[in-house]
Design a protein that fits this description.
The chain is α+β, with helices and mostly antiparallel strands. Among the domains are: about 1-90, Ubiquitin-like (UB roll); about 95-170, Ubiquitin-like (UB roll), CATH 3.10.20; about 175-250, Ubiquitin-like (UB roll), CATH 3.10.20; about 255-325, Ubiquitin-like (UB roll) (Roll); about 330-415, Ubiquitin-like (UB roll) (Roll), CATH 3.10.20.310; about 415-495, Ubiquitin-like (UB roll) (Roll), CATH 3.10.20; about 505-570, Ubiquitin-like (UB roll) (Roll), CATH 3.10.20.310. The chain is built from 16 helices and 40 strands. The protein has a 16-stranded antiparallel β-sheet. Strands 13, 14, 15 and 16 form a four-stranded mixed β-sheet that branches. The protein has a three-stranded mixed β-sheet with strand order 1-3-2, covered by helices on one side. The longest helix has 17 residues, at about 125-140. The radius of gyration is 38 Å and the shape is globular.
Length: about 950
């Protein structure tokens, strides 16, 4: 015991060696790369200050919270100079760098890897490997492979792990036969024939349920709705067996429907899932009778009645007798007593509407259940409009059996409307001055709408939360008094702030790929700021946008306190990727592309990619095209909040959609950053050499064709307030882009501006309206009459004016080749209606015009420019339907645009010797397919 005691004492002395002395140095040893500067900055160890045991304990805690190391040892000793030296001996958690699954045939590739549930970039966990083995074995057992064996091999290296799962499926247990016995009331071989697709297949765990379902459907088609089926698996040998089903068919049921003229027997029976539901009882048939009645009423048969009669016996008879009656239509929906809200406003809140020629949404039918729900909705609507005492007094329904007209009158006692008399300012003392006067919606003299009251409550609560009062609650206090038809109200606020919370230490967790500084530079908060969960969410979004991490979580860690540490938990994705593809289309011929990218250059989330793309038409090598692109992204330029993007591009593009071919090389650089939430700004610099050839329009051939140099500066501002960038239903999108090519460094000096404003808002819960206005203007300086053809605007196509082919609108030369323009205007409208799942239907209207404003009448005559007059005739219009299907990479759009101002055959005659040319008549419209958003 003495020896043990001495050993423990010696260890304690060794552990405390150096404590109390000035800190001389901190060393790290680790078996794999980690962000040593970031970890060093995180620890509370200051050189020269006395080393304490508390500092060592806090350092260990922070290292554990970083969630990077699987082993942490802390050694302290006294150096030669008498100072303390601390050494952290670390072993980093291993990152899964590769997951392979081999030997599967019965499983699909996606299912095999989904069952493993271990992804590259995650930390290696032996328990996760064991769980993956168990899931694979369980799935194979369910699929009829009970002998399947799973072998998992793990190759460990410092900081890394490679996993290989090898599957030996073994022979399946096969369904050798099916047998049907018992009181089947039908030929057994006929029932067994219904199960024929199960024979010869592996015996899956759900095979019995599938067989029972198939038999149940077959028996019910024959009228045996009360049949009982009991299935079991009977092994015949080690790897085969029989699916054995014992049936008690019971009495046959004959279903008779009479009196149904407006609806077929199949339609009425289809109102319930009679063939597939587990049991069918008398209650099932009664429910079907109710549904039949509701179906008739929804189609306008207001007085339809359904009688149900059961007759026991063998067969048992179930008889539906339907008295359809005539069709009725709601002729009027009137309101009485509504002095402050119009009848039209109230009518818009009802599903019960007068009949009209358009049957969608449903109009004209009167259904009592729907009308009762309408009255409840109307009651709530009045309260939403500040009528707290409003009541629905009566709602008589007048039915004229001779004419089939139904007149509805809703009698309302509105009561006084609550109006805002005064709004007391909330007590936000102690908050920063900029937060003490939040913008409230409620205004004296306006109705006190509950929605506005709730919004103001949230605004005040949000203001408190932004200063760290995360648990703050705000309750409005409304004092009303009656004064005739109005009830003036004074609004006050009861505020419970709760404790104020601040951000303590910001700890990056699970980061084994990048420097912590790269992550921390993206955060809109730092230690000492108020703990604001909305700001935490913004930081999470910013880090995720780096593209380096598979998942990001930003949240407080530890118990709630006045000062809380915040953890930035990241799971990296594989840094490198290789993509390639090939295909063929009639426009470009044989095409192919390949891209190699790496997203974590220098452990700082820098991205570099090399992309090559080419196409060739075998019988016309002159149409060969290629694109070579090298791009680089620096997320924190010189450690700032600016992101730097650079790209080097080489391209040869031949005339397909455009009116020219080009061979170009360019070098571009851009800086951008978030200036405010949802507001992004930046500037780009582009240097480019281009050889433009094979130009179709001849009017400005001497300016358009040949070599050119361009150095352009392009500042921009983008505000994106949409609720969804791909399929918005509300919000605003605005952008301003400038482009200026100064003299001396550009072949042609010019300036351009592009403006866009788009807005989406819901007209109803099933209908969204979107409009977009775009204007582009350019001007060539130094005496040039037009912008270079590559800088001119072109209209027509899927993203501008639908109904017209790509780049087909605007002024033309004498051969009807489109010249492009320096002024482009587009105004688009669209209504969208969700149909099912991710599919929606749209109706659109596009309007656009394109002009060469610098080319005056003399220029037009000399250059042979036609269709350039700034007149209503040269603004083109289209309408049409469209479909939108949302995918993870954006919407797939299919539109057909009809030209509203379709033009017939055009003839142009030139001055001097008679020279006339004609163009063919325009098509009715155009089909457009795109994988992008129109707005």
């Amino acid at each position: 015991m003495a020896v043990v005691a001495l050993g423990v004492l010696a260890g304690a002395v060794a552990a405390q060696e150096g404590v109390g002395r000035p800190l001389h140095a901190v060393h790290f040893t680790c078996d794999a790369w980690f962000d040593e500067p970031g970890i060093r900055a995180l620890l509370p160890l200051t050189p020269g200050a006395p080393l304490t045991a508390e500092q060592l304990a806090e350092s260990r805690r922070l290292l554990e919270l970083s969630d990077v190391f699987r082993e942490i040892e802390v050694d302290t000793r006294v150096g030669d100079g008498g100072g303390a030296i601390v050494t952290f001996r670390l072993k980093r958690k291993r990152v899964v760098t590769e997951v392979r699954v081999r030997g599967y045939d019965a499983l699909k590739w996606r299912d095999a890897y989904r069952l493993v549930r271990i992804r590259t970039g995650s930390f290696y966990d032996p328990d996760a490997v064991v769980a993956a083995n168990a899931r694979l074995r369980a799935r194979y057992a369910q699929m009829g492979y009970p002998h399947a064996a799973i072998d998992s091999a793990v190759r460990l290296r410092p900081g890394e792990a490679e996993l290989t799962f090898t599957i030996e499926e073994g022979p399946p247990v096969v369904v050798a036969a099916v047998a049907v016995t018992g009181d089947t009331r039908m030929p057994a071989n006929e029932l067994e024939h219904a199960l024929r697709r199960l024979v010869g297949k592996p015996h899956r765990r759900d095979g019995l349920r599938e067989g029972e379902r198939m038999l149940r459907e077959t028996l019910r088609e024959a009228g045996y709705y009360e049949a009982e089926i009991d299935g079991e698996w009977v092994p015949s040998d080690t790897d085969a067996g029989v699916l054995w089903f014992t049936i008690d068919a019971g009495a046959r049921t004959e279903v008779e429907i009479i009196g149904n003229e407006a609806r077929s027997r199949k339609q009425l029976l289809g109102l319930m899932d009679l063939s597939s539901r587990l049991i069918v009882t008398d209650g099932t048939w009664r429910e079907l009778a109710r549904r039949i009645k509701r179906e008739y009423q929804e189609q306008g048969y207001y007085r339809a009645r359904v009688f149900l009669r059961f007759t026991d016996g063998d067969p048992r008879q179930i008889r539906f007798r339907i008295e359809e009656g005539r069709r009725y239509t709601v002729r009027r929906v009137d309101f009485s007593g509504n002095t402050q809200l119009s009848s039209e406003t109230l009518r818009d809140e009802l599903n019960t509407r007068p009949g009209r020629w358009l049957p969608w949404p449903r109009r004209g039918a009167f259904v009592r259940a729907v009308f009762d729900e309408d009255l409840r909705r109307l009651w709530y609507f009045y309260r939403e409009q500040a009528f707290e005492d409003a009541e629905i007094v009566d709602a008589p329904v007048d039915v004229n059996d001779e004419t089939g007209a139904i007149d509805v009158t809703v009698v309302i006692d509105e009561g006084p409307r609550t109006m805002v008399e005064a709004v007391r300012p909330p007590d936000l003392s102690g908050l920063p001055p900029a937060l003490q006067e939040p913008a409230l919606v409620l205004v004296p003299g306006e109705p006190l709408l509950p929605a506005d009251l709730a919004e103001d409550s949230k605004t005040i609560q949000r203001t408190l939360q932004s200063d760290g009062y995360s648990g703050a609650s705000v309750e409005p206090v409304v004092t009303r008094r009656k004064s005739g038809d109005v009830a003036p109200a004074v609004v006050d606020w009861t505020i419970t702030r709760g404790p104020r919370r601040e951000i303590g230490t910001v700890i990056v967790q699970g980061n084994v790929e990048t420097y912590n500084e790269t992550i921390l530079s993206q955060l809109p908060f730092e230690s000492g700021d108020p703990l604001d969960f909305e700001v935490l969410q913004r930081g999470q979004d910013k880090i995720y946008q780096l593209g380096t991490y598979r998942s990001v979580g930003v949240r407080p860690i530890g118990a709630p306190a006045e000062v809380e540490d915040v953890g930035i938990a990241v799971v990296p994705r594989p840094s490198g990727s290789i993509q390639w593809g090939a295909g063929y289309n009639t426009r470009d011929g044989i095409t192919g592309f390949g891209e190699i990218s790496y997203d974590n250059v220098g452990h700082r989330a820098r991205r570099i990619s090399v992309r090559g793309q080419g196409s060739v038409i075998p019988n016309d090598l002159d149409q060969t095209q290629f694109l070579a692109l090298i791009s680089f992204r620096e997320p924190s330029f010189l450690g700032s909040a600016w992101q730097w993007n650079s790209e080097l591009v080489g391209e040869r593009s031949t005339k397909t959609i455009n009116q020219y071919s080009i061979l170009r090389g360019g070098f571009g650089n851009g800086l951008s950053r978030d200036l405010l939430p949802r507001l992004k700004g930046g500037i780009e610099l582009q240097l480019e050499y281009a050889d433009t050839f094979d130009v179709a329009p001849q009017s400005f051939l001497d300016e358009d064709e040949g070599d050119s140099f361009t150095t352009a500066i392009s500042p921009f501002l983008i505000y994106d307030g949409r609720n969804d960038p791909f399929a918005p239903t509300s919000g605003i999108f605005d952008s301003v882009r400038l482009r200026y090519a100064p003299p001396g460094v550009s072949t042609v000096q010019f300036g351009k501006i592009n403006l866009q404003h788009s807005q989406a808002f819901p007209l109803a819960n099933w209908l969204s309206f979107i409009y977009s206005a775009r204007v582009g203007y350019g001007n060539a300086f130094s005496g040039a009459e037009v912008l270079p053809i590559r800088e001119r605007f072109f209209l027509g196509g899927a993203t501008t004016v639908r109904g017209f082919s790509e780049n087909s609108l605007g002024p033309t030369d004498q051969a009807f080749n489109v010249l492009g323009g320096d002024l482009a205007m587009v105004l688009s409208f669209e209504l969208r209606v969700p149909v099912i799942y991710q599919l929606s239907f749209a109706v659109f209207n596009d309007n656009g015009g394109l002009f060469l404003t610098q080319c005056d009448a003399q220029c037009e005559q000399q250059r042979g420019v036609f269709g350039n007059a700034f007149t209503a005739e040269n603004f083109r219009h289209s309408v049409g339907p469209g479909l939108r299907y949302m995918t993870p990479v954006g919407p797939i759009s299919l539109d057909y645009g009809f030209k509203l101002d379709r033009r017939g055959r055009q003839v142009i005659c030139y001055p001097g010797p008679r020279d006339c040319r004609s163009d063919s008549a325009e098509s009715i419209g155009e089909v457009h397919f795109s994988i992008s958003g129109t707005f």
